[in-house]
Amino acid sequence: MDGWLFSFMTASALTLLLPELPAAWLLPVLLFGALWFAYGRHWVLSGLLTGMIWMASVGHWQLAWQLPNDKIRQVVLVEGQVETLLSNTSPSRFTLRLTRLDDTALWRDVRLRLSWRSPAWPLKQGQRVRLAVKLRPPHASLNLGGFNYQQWMFAQGIRASGYVVSDRQAELLTEAPTIRQWWLDRFASLELKHKAWLAALSLGYRGWLTTQDWWLVQRTGIAHLIAISGLHLGMVSAFAYTLMVWVMGPILGRKKQRINLHLLALGVALLLSCGYAALAGFSLPTVRAWLMLVMLVLLLRSNLYWRPARLLLVCLSLFVLLFPLSLLSLSFWLSFTAVLVIYLVFWRWPNRRRNWSLLTAGQTMLRMQLALSLLMLPLVAWQFGVVSLVSPLVNLLAVPYVTLLLLPLCLLALLFLVLDRAWGQALYSVADQLVSLGLNGISVIESLMHSALLVPAWSGWVWLCALFACIWLALPQGLVHRALAVVLLIPLLSAWLPSREPGWRIEVLDVGQGLAVIVHRQGRALLYDTGPAYFSGGSAAQAQILPSLRALGIRRLDWLFISHQDNDHAGGLQDILAHMPVSGLVTNLGRCRAGWQQQWQGLRLEVLWPPDNQTGSQNNLSCVLKVSDGQTALLLSGDIENTVEKQLVGAVDLQAQILLAPHHGSATSSSEAFIAAVQPQYVVFSQARFNRWGFPRPEVLAAYQEAGVHTYQTADTGQLRFYVNKGRIHIQAVRQSRHNQWYMQSSIPGTLD
After folding, report:
1. In a 10 Å sphere around its CB, with 0-12 CB exposed, 13-18 middle and 19+ buried, how is residue 221 labelled?
2. What is the DSSP string of 557-587?
């Protein structure tokens, strides 16, 4: 049984890595094979085929509904129910469970991700609405180090995204907010300094946490404390069980009732923990934890004994059956790894003392925190690019502080908030003071120690070897020779060595409808443009550029060029300046003038446009920058149009092997004379898929192709990487090379069910 379960889990996970799903007609054939192998007791082969069949079936079901081609970027009427927990102060981005698209009713589960700049009424979870929207298939920017938003949308069952276009056609059909929404609204009226942290702990709502809050969470490794998860659910169950035994024990003992107090307490603990999971919106981490509690209670009730390995395999297989797309969630793998580490700790260093004591509990907690910090380090560093150096110490103090003191107080305050706002305010004020003390304590620890280490985006194989090395070191001496673990650490140690590669790199980031280009060599970098700022809050600099810079191991910018002041090019400027040291800033309103030159890292930086005292539109005042090593050149042209191109042709040396297309491929740019003067081998269009201007224009794309130029679009490639060395150019598209799984492929418009 264990072999079948393990192979089922393995095949389910590996199917998510395939570039294409097995054809639907092939699945019955594979099912016959799985049954045949099971009949012959070849359990591993049967489990592998069953896992592939299950995940492929889920994939085909998810991809069966696509936004019809005639609905893309068109105004359509949608009806559905708001699923997102919202507050009046948060940006109005929400998930809508779709029930009708224009005149077609949908019988299957389809979700939309929508934004609404100025809602006509306060949006609440549970409301049924009718809205006029523009939709497009799910697609998002994709860069090294950035959040994979497209994968997140697929895991959430989101089949299209868009925005509300008309308030006049918007209609509130049913005003029926959920209990969680009612609780959040009541909580929002409280006067608290640390409302964001308390809302996360009480209701699982993290919409008020700021970028600085999340950065603190990453530096100190306390993400599991502010997200309602297995730790919180386990503590609630323990509190409920203990309270039942303490209260009902004397009563049942006096009356000599034939009631199993142990089973009664377990039942109440399950019931209350289920209520707490509901309070958190039945998020997947809480559901996983609750199902494991149910499994443990069933085993206790039936007097069965399963080895921990079998219990874990059964629970994981159950999760894959119930929530197959949770395998795409990082929280699943973090939880899975944490459980394995805890099991390893109790197996490797069992507690042999029969009597419980604070010393024993402290030693167990210390071992567990050290093991979790060490063995989960490769996974955390690989995914987040941050290694917390203070996590063991902070968690050793924060875990009991939050779970034994702050969490019970928050739940009690939430309960009293229903009865009377004043009582809730009083209790939450105490909790607010406790949060202040906790944050002050973290600040003290951070001031005494270097809190975190930023890690570049190394290959997953480097971290996999590091993980096996850590496990190897934790195993008993008799099983393996620990010195051999050093061999597995060689890739990690070599990755830390400073880069000495002779060439230079160009990173054209995927920032949607905007532009951001990084040029770097041996750890030194310049950035050309900063992408757009978003009307709903944040910017491409926060979401894509800064994570990409950290992933490349870049800690400061030698030069920051701003081509011009339009939002899609300069929207993230302030975020870059606030979070990244910049030695030199060059803008079209300042030092960017034709004739400006610099030698930098063996490369020549030369500004070709605009000249002094030039007037015109912001587009035609774009800072045109040429970067060259003497053999290969990169031309960054901003948003210049034909009138400027004519002045540049013949006046300066425009020839460059790599060209960033002027104005994202607009019909007002990329004239034939300009293309002939540049003579590019490669042209890159930085634009969003399904953008409203239709960039790059078909005629512009055709002009480059007729000239024999290789064309790339960041909407198709994701981040585009050029490695230049001695006249040779190597190109890598992140979407094709690292994220080419079947669910990341461009959606093909289909028809309605």
Report:
1. buried
2. EEEEEE--SSHHHHTTHHHHHHHS-EEEEEE
Instruction: Round the average pLDDT of the chain to a whole number and report it.
Output: 88
Percent of the chain scoring above 90 in pLDDT: 47
Number of other residues whose CB lies within 10 A of the CB of residue 580: 19
Are the CB atoms for 551 and 457 separated by under 8 Å?
A: yes
Q: How large is the average pLDDT for residues 195-216?
A: 88
- Contact in structure between 517 and 558 (CB atoms under 8 Å): no
CATH architecture of 504-744: 4-Layer Sandwich (3.60)
pLDDT at 387: 83
Q: What is the pLDDT of residue 479?
A: 61
Top-ranked range on mean pLDDT: pick from 249-263, 398-412, 701-715: 701-715
CB atoms closer than 10 angstroms to residue 443: 12
DSSP 572: T
DSSP states of 163-217: EEEEEEEEEEEE----HHHHHHHHHHTS--TTHHHHHHHHH---TT--HHHHHHH
Record the tokens describing residue 505, joined without a space.
Answer: 């790199």
Q: Is 522 exposed, middle or buried (0-12, 13-18, 19+ CB in 10 A)?
A: middle
Reported as a pLDDT band with limits 50, 70 and 90, residue 501 is confident
Average pLDDT of the residues in 105-132: 90
- Asked if 226 contacts 217 with a C-beta cutoff of 8 angstroms, the reply is yes
Contacts of 58 (CB under 8 A, 6+ apart): 324, 325
- Contact indicator for 137, 747 with CB cutoff of 8 Å: yes
Nearest-angstrom CA–CA distance, 417 and 202:
12
How far is CA 561 from each of CA 465, 518, 519, 566, rounded to the nearest angstrom? 39, 10, 11, 13
Bridge partner list, 649: 652
Q: Do domains 69-177 and 504-744 have the same CATH topology?
A: no
Pairing of strands 720-725, 728-733: antiparallel
Lay out the sheet containing 633-636: strands in order across: 597-600, 603-609, 624-628, 633-636, 658-660, 682-685, 710-713
Report the alpha-carbon distance of residue 278 to residue 461 in Å, rounded.
38
Strands 93-101 and 75-82, sheet pairing: antiparallel
Picking from 747, 721, 745, the residue whose alpha carbon sits closest to that of residue 733 is 721
Residue recorded with tokens 């400006």? 596
What is residue 130's three-state secondary structure? Answer: strand
Pairing of strands 624-628, 633-636: antiparallel
Q: Positive or negative CA dihedral for 345, 349, 353, 354?
A: positive
Tokens standing for residue 636? 């960054």
Indicate the domain borders of the chain. Answer: 2-63, 69-177, 199-348+356-454, 460-496, 504-744
Longest CA–CA separation in the chain, Å: 103
SS3 assignment, position 560: strand
Q: How far apart are CA 412 and CA 736, in angstroms?
A: 51
Q: Residue 342: which of 312, 320, 362, 321 has the closest Cα?
A: 312
The answer to whether the CB of 293 falls within 8 A of the CB of 273 is yes
When pLDDT is averaged across residues 135-164 and rounded to a whole number, the result is 90
pLDDT for residue 142: 93
Token digits of residue 574 = 């302030």
Rounded to an integer, what distance in angstroms lies between the CA atom of residue 289 and that of residue 615?
64
Q: Is the four-CA dihedral 240, 392, 329, 194 of positive or negative sign?
A: positive
Phi first, then psi: give them for residue 284, nearest 5 degrees. Answer: -55, -40
Measured in Å, how far apart are the chain's first and last C-alpha atoms? 39
CB 562 within 8 A of CB 586: yes
Under DSSP, is residue 479 helix (H, G, I), strand (E, B) or coil? Answer: coil
Residues 6+ apart with CB under 8 A from 437: none
Whether residue 521 contacts residue 514, with contact meaning beta carbons closer than 8 Å, is answered with no
CATH of range 69-177; options 2.60.40, 2.40.50, 1.20.120, 3.10.100? 2.40.50
* Backbone φ, ψ for residue 190 (5° rounding): -75, 150
Question: What is the pairing mode between strands 386-388 and 158-174?
Answer: unpaired
